[in-house]
Amino acid sequence: MTEARTPDEVKAEVLEVAQELYRKGLVEGTSGNVSGRMPGGETVCITPSSVAYLPMTIDDLVVIDLDGEVVDGERSPSSEKGLHLACYQAFPEVGGVIHSHPVYATMFALAREPVPAVIEEFVVFVGGDVPCAEYATTGTDAVGEELVKHLADRSAALIANHGMCSIGATAERALHTALVVERSAQIVWGARLLGKVHDIPDEVNTNFAGVYRWMRENGM
Ligand SMILES: [Zn+2]
């Protein structure tokens, strides 16, 4: 759905989503980063390195090509741009990528265990359990290489000992996924304190996974 939008609309969405990510508490300080694929598909608008979210303006955003070279903007792109580019290169249908540090999802990333798909309709938005990618040092290309191994049929994956990556047709959809996963991680964490967490019947999640695939293939 990125084709119908103008470059200014994509930039405005990246800024709005980045500020909402901060307001929702999914990042702290200047950590995390948001990007959106620009019309034409060959460049990406991404948040800059080390700029606070709330005072950030459109002019702080940076446009890079799929090799990471800056084509527009005064700032340096996020140091974690590699994971964004890996997602855009691997999945042409992806139009938005978010890297965040949500508290509960990151607890699962430390335990290196998936956030299970045990809440009704979770799979519609996420595709299935949220897997944890192999550990890779932040800022290296290996982070993206490990992540894309898990994102062909998922809209989110955990980054071991670090945080989360979510993807979508737009940055706004990637934000929605990040919020759904974080909320589920919090609920699962609490439910486990209460006792056994029961699974949803496989058949139900299999059907929801079909809905997820259809939405992804159709740019939703
Ligand atoms: Zn990070």
Query: Could you say how many structural domains there are in total?
Result: 1
Overall strand count = 8
CATH architecture: 3-Layer(aba) Sandwich
Major sheet description: 8 strands, mixed
Q: Assign a percent range to the helix content.
A: 40-55%
- In the CATH hierarchy, the third-tier topology is known as L-fuculose-1-phosphate Aldolase
Structural class: alpha+beta
Mean of the pLDDT scores? 96
Strand numbers in spatial order across the main sheet: 4-3-2-1-5-8-7-6
Bound molecules: zinc ion
Order of helices and strands: HEEEEHEHHEHEEHH
Please report the number of helical segments.
7
Q: Runs with pLDDT <50, length 5+?
A: none
**Strand percent estimate:** 15-25%
CATH class: Alpha Beta
Distance between the termini: 7 Å
What's the CATH superfamily, by name?
A: Class II aldolase/adducin N-terminal domain
> How would you sum up the global shape?
globular
**Rg from alpha-carbon coordinates:** 16 Å
